[in-house]
Amino acid sequence: MTHDTKLDLVLERKIDLPVAPLWACWTRPELLKQWFCPLPWRVTEAEMDLRPGGIFSTLMRGPDGEEHPNVGCFLEVVTERRLVFTDAMLPGFRPAREAFMTGIVVFEPNGSGTHYRAAALHATAEAREKHEAMGFHEGWGKATDQLVALARSL
Amino acid sequence: MTHDTKLDLVLERKIDLPVAPLWACWTRPELLKQWFCPLPWRVTEAEMDLRPGGIFSTLMRGPDGEEHPNVGCFLEVVTERRLVFTDAMLPGFRPAREAFMTGIVVFEPNGSGTHYRAAALHATAEAREKHEAMGFHEGWGKATDQLVALARSL
């Protein structure tokens, strides 16, 4: 997977856990809800149908009751290896009215651990810059800390 | 496959040919170019990488030299059964700047023939109406006549 530095944002980390618990945290809604948003935001609802065209929907709630619903679909599901999803398409592959990003998460076994890489692909450099200004690196970093802590506890 | 009549346009036809030659006409660029546009428009260039996220690109040329490039990607490729593609995403699943439609083509064996169904899914009722006004029914109908004639000649 190569990325276009003008359009993509990438988080890469070597994690000292095998792929299985990380995959579980990414693909089981009751686990996803526990780490997917950096606190104090929380995911309060999550729906996942793990197949191409299947729904991936979350509701994020802020500390003051703000609500950010997000609905999209999965594009590729390769168990314990690769997960691709987007908000550019609704379930059943219908084009969405507005697109923000495609997410590509790759889990590569690395000895007893995992080489983990999560990328956000955007349509334009402006969308990438907006995402970076929204706090991509800090937000995805904190969420990944939460992911690792949860996976370690399983 | 059920459709939303406010958002989708559907062409359905029983064709007295087996699936194989129809599938070939849809998936081999040198064949696709011969039928995909209703004459006098022609597809002069076609690139297809038949896997999820793989390129589906065509260049349509009009009788007065007009050019309509279209680039998107495949979303599902089930040999001789189902082909899904969109212009809402570029190759590699990057969101496109603008989305017009997702195409879903289903080939169902029906005795010695094929029950053929091609649907265009849009994001909004306005996009669907625009596509209908552009001549969806006549255009896709004529192209399908060309598809059947070419498949019969193989």
From TrEMBL, chains A, B:
InterPro entries: ASHA1/2-like_C (IPR013538), START-like_dom_sf (IPR023393). It comes from the Bacteria. This is SRPBCC family protein. Pfam families: AHSA1 (PF08327). Residues 17-150 form the Activator of Hsp90 ATPase homologue 1/2-like C-terminal domain. Belongs to the AHA1 family.
